[in-house]
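Running co-folding for MD3.
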Amino acid sequence: MPQQTPPPITPDLFASLAEPLPATERLGAQAWLLRGFALPFVEALLPALAEVEQAAPFRQMLTPGGQTMSVALTNCGTLGWTSDRRGYRYEPLDPLSGRPWPALPPAFLHLAREAAAAAGFADFAPDACLVNRYLPGTRMGLHQDRDERSLAHPIVSVSLGIPAVFLFGGYTRREPARRVPLAHGDVLVWGGEDRLRFHGILPVKAAVHPLLGARRINFTLRKAG
Ligand code: MD3
Ligand code: FE
């Protein structure tokens, strides 16, 4: 019998360690993580974000239960998500200024439509964009997004700045949630049967991002009206 050479273990081990994370990961039947998808858009997104923030500053809202949310938020688009003692809802006016929310920046819309199309959702037409700001220690508890008029439309979520761990849950609060790291430039697209999954963000670890400093910005584009 000819002697068989054993397979070379070490090079393969190193190769698998060096394997980059796949750019696209399917988290659910209609839930996609597009890693780095927003990177080519960042140069256009940041000045647009600064303009939104100037017109409608980040603020911490009250939950209907009377707790102050740790995440600070603002909105752009014709509808903005708000919360107070009366409940969660979308409003055409910023309650802080009494004026309409700033318009959806073209760069936001462009990115949202490209990402939705890449995930198989053609002709996404968002009218609302909720912008969340996380400082170190900030978290978002498990929740469902169900304040939009129709749940038939997808949601596109863009992460910028310091990293976070996303909780990808099931259809009840008590189902265990998968932990998915989110980095600067990552985009999530959710629709169809995954639209009502519970989801959240673990407390954000202290870090500094070269472009955004010690904060994480997440904005979600939605069709709310
Ligand atoms: C899954 N934001 O604004 S984005 C939210 O990172 C929100 O700020 C988180 O949850 C954040 O409501 C997570 C990812 C995301 C957004 C909407 C979803 C996942 C979703 C809607 C349905 C299912
Ligand atoms: Fe949410």
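Result summary
The helical segments are 9-18, 42-55, 106-118.
The chain is about 15% helix and 35% strand.
Job closed.
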